[in-house]
Amino acid sequence: MCGIIGIVGVEPVADRLIDSLKRLEYRGYDSAGVAAMVDGHVERRRAQGKIRALEAVLAQEPLAGTVGIGHTRWATHGAPAERNAHPHTAGRVTLVHNGIIENYAELREELRAEGRSFQSDTDTEVIAHLLDRTLETIPDPLKALKATLDRLTGAYALGILVQGEKDLVMGARRGSPLVVGHGRGEMFIGSDALAVGPFTNRIVYLDEGDFVAIDHQGARIFDAAGQPVTRPERMVSPAAALVEKGNYRHFMEKEIHDQPEACQHTLSAYIDPVTAAAKAPGVDFAKVDKLQIVACGTASYAGMIARYLFERLADLPCEVEIASEFRYRRPALAPGALALAVSQSGETADTLAALRWCKERGIQTAALVNNHESTMAREADVLFPTHAGPEIGVASTKAFTSQVAALTALAVAAARQRGRIDAAEEARLTTLLMEVPRLIAQSIGAEDEIKAIAADIARARDVLYLGRGAMYPLALEGALKLKEISYIHAEGYAAGELKHGPIALVDEATPIIVIAPSDELFEKTASNMSEVIARGGRIVMITDEAGARHAPEGVRVVLAPACDPVIAPLVFAAPIQLLAYYVAVQKGADVDQPRNLAKSVTVE
Ligand code: M6R
To answer: Which residues fall within 8 angstroms of residue 229, CB to CB, at 6 or more apart?
Structure first.
């Protein structure tokens, strides 16, 4: 998960950029760089590896100037190498970028045809060239930036210097966050409030599609249409910076939108971008006979999704059990088993007790947790961290997808360690995983459609969720999300179970949410939908374009991006979370603190 800082200051900028980048180290990175305006010219320093490597470069070749930008990079396009580190320069433009430009290949061909040459393997360099070319015909930097942004497809947060513009840093955001910081006679931009935390606590969160120019006079913000706008300023203490709502109404809404970054950050701990290898630090799955996952609530559904992957990819027998049942069942676990506790908080009483039960019996234990200082993290033999950042909403969202992302990468690592896939297949699977942040951002794009559907669902007394394969646990998760924040009764079923009882509930008053990507099971799920329609049932189907083309008549469709089945649970999670969220908002419920629920359940 890359980090950005931009400063229009009055003090030497290099040390301040480094100070800020150090605060962004928590996001994970493999190279870093800074650039500064020196007498109207832009100079940059970059290094592969840790920030101390960049500091060593700066010690050799100091960087003057009071206006500059900095970046920590986690490789997506192109290996972690100095030539791929940001900032990237093309002509008059030097910039840093978080996110992924989807149409970079076609833009690069267009620019190459005009005689431009590229120094890196990144998607980012294309933006620098595009803006530099646009400046040739549109000399106003902000107008040129707007014209450039209009050509980009994908996600970005940008920090930009333009040669000759001594007192200017421009920024833009779509899909990746960017904040503006107001200092005393100085201005800042950053990828989050922590980035600008050393300099100011007066923060403005840019809205989706906004772009901005900061100079010594202040900030000029424009919306996606290029109209000047004002966005509210907030006071954010450094300690609170990690847990700010930004411009979102609820933490849950923010955390749903945080998922591309949360998953990217988590995946960076499990995938080596150079070798495309998946990592399982601390465990050799070749020596594991059985994986026993224990967890509660949403975390147990993440575990259920993982079972499909560990068994299918790694041929590793896997059982998933709700921790509150496991601990009293006295399960027969052989010494070759690995017990894996999955938990956001790392403190859930039943999961912790199950972990301890296994440990006491000499079973190897691992904890996949988001709170790395938690009891589970400390007591398990092996810690598998997720890097979702603090999750405040009681309804788990980004912690869930981060768990699924980490578990999917671990299943790939297990498959390789157990000789079930070769290096080429491992690379194919990890490449798929690296696409997940972008695809989640795309699935969040269905938000307006989901909001409209939520108004209808909010009137229901009962809702059914159906899915097959790994979409079955997602159906359970969808039902749990809806229950806990909207207080509407909801149940999740495997679609094939419909005929064995739940179909008796089908009538026009009971909406049915079907999660059905166009995979090998789609036809069967489509038959189940026809059975529901024949009985007057109302269906909302979450599917991709191919699925939508084959939707039975009368089905309302929410579109998610097409993807490989291995990553489908990650890509299809956001629509069900958004549906629960907007139903709860529609009903005026307390979304972040639903009645009777606690974020961390430390009692039985
Ligand atoms: O902290 P944990 O992941 O161990 O918590 C487990 C469950 O209590 C939790 O997932 C709960 O189901 C959430 N409120 C669901 O949104």
So the answer is: 207, 210, 221, 222, 223
